Amino acid sequence: MHDKNSENHPTIKGAKIIDGKLNFPISWLNQQGYCEYSIYLEYMEGISTLPTPEMMKGQEIHQELEDKFKEEAVPATFAEMMELSQKEELLSRELWVVSPEYGIRGFIDEIWLTPDEFIIIDDKPGTVAYYSTINQVFGYCLAFKDIIEKNSEISNGRKIRAALRERGTDNIFWSAEFDQTAEKKIKTLINRMQDLLNGSKAFLPTDNPRKCAKCRFSSYCEFK
Ligand code: SF4
């Protein structure tokens, strides 16, 4: 799962060119649902802001979980995990996924590999399943599916389920199968993101003033 032909995008901060295609972090799908124009400001215009308290708290909890997992983890390659999980349940954290085909990449917070299905978990603050967070976790599902489809002998037809979990707890507050409808929807959104990033469509600002009031880019934004 390493990026063989990977280089930084010449003008878009955080984007890469992988195997000749623009590749963006899957977390941008979440930001897209909040406000597309903030993606423009942050990555096209290169505006950086201080992290919000919520972002800092998220990083802290993330690190705690990661450290705890590492204390108990037995290192295994991806192929070994896939094989072993045909017989027993496994858990992995911070699994790196990259799909050159769809132009997306990122770390899956946690994945449960079971003999029947793969459960892809994204940790979020709160317990509301916003469509933007659902899009993000479906993005991870698509990248994961792309990888295992290219290695079909290790997936042996197992389904993929997406789940959102309240950060720092065991509370899974939303889950759904990554079925054909979900796959079609997320592919359409990813195509839109590619169009935005390659300049063929315009980034739209949100029309929700409550979002602007909380936005870390509001002092730089002409639409606030
Ligand atoms: S201020 Fe409003 S319109 Fe501007 S980037 Fe932030 S959320 Fe979007």
List unreliable stretches of 5+ residues: none
The succession of helices and strands, N to C, reads EEEHHHHEEEHHEEHH
What small-molecule ligands were found? iron/sulfur cluster
Helix vs. strand class: alpha+beta
- Residue share in β-strands: 15-25%
| Average residue pLDDT | 90
CATH class: Alpha Beta
- Principal-axes shape call: globular
Radius of gyration: 18 Å
- Terminal CA distance reads 40 Å
CATH arch. level architecture:
Alpha-Beta Complex
Explain this structure.
The chain is an alpha+beta fold. It has a single domain, classed as Lambda Exonuclease, Chain A. Strands 1, 2, 3, 4, 5, 6, 7 and 8 form an 8-stranded mixed sheet that branches. Strand 4 and strand 5 form a beta hairpin. The longest helix is centred in the N-terminal third of the chain and has 20 residues. The protein is globular. The model has no long low-confidence stretch (mean pLDDT 90). Bound molecules: iron/sulfur cluster (SF4). Iron/sulfur cluster binds next to helix 2 and helix 8.
Quick recap:
Helix content is 41%, strand content 24%. The protein has 224 residues and is α+β, with helices and mostly antiparallel strands. The protein is globular.
